[in-house]
Amino acid sequence: MDLMTWNPLREIDVLLSRAGLGPLRSMDNEGWMPMVDVRETDAAYVVSAELPGIAKEDIKVVVDNGVLTLQGERHRDEEEKNEKYYRRERSFGRFSRSFSLPESVAADEITAKYREGIMEIRLPKTERQSAHRTEVPIE
Question: Domain locations in the chain?
């Protein structure tokens, strides 16, 4: 199973951020990437992504040619002209995460639920061939 492509720079950025040292590259210019867990059950693969502070309308889930793409945007809060920031750690902007799906996924049966800042995408397993392109509705 190959649900995620490993990106060593992403892993280094995550480690540096957790240590309070900041990312190697500017997230403001390149957007940001939500943290994602991928797990497998007997019946499905499940992708869970942390997307706090994002409206459901700003998120899109698409399956195209065996690739699941989760994309969207977190909008920056309006800044008050009289406020001074001493520290600003939250990331804003567009994001996109893509995952190669195994052939055993039923693309036309994928479901997505968004609750309390967590997107859960359920990818049911099947023996038949999957659809070419599907936009997944988000509940």
Answer: 8-75+94-136
**pLDDT at residue 27, rounded to an integer:** 45
Mean pLDDT to the nearest integer, 21-39: 67
Q: Which distant-in-sequence residues (6+ apart) come within 8 Å of 6 by Cβ?
A: none
pLDDT in tens, 61-78: 999 888 899 999 988 776
In what side-by-side order are the strands of the sheet with 93-100?
93-100, 67-74, 59-64, 133-136
Topology of the domain comprising 8-75+94-136: Immunoglobulin-like (2.60.40)
Instruction: Provide the residue type at 123 as one letter.
Output: L
Residue 5's nearest CA partner among 98, 82, 111 is 98
Strands (E), 1-139: 36-40, 44-50, 59-64, 67-74, 93-100, 111-115, 118-124, 133-136
| Cα 26 to Cα 6: distance, rounded to the nearest angstrom | 20
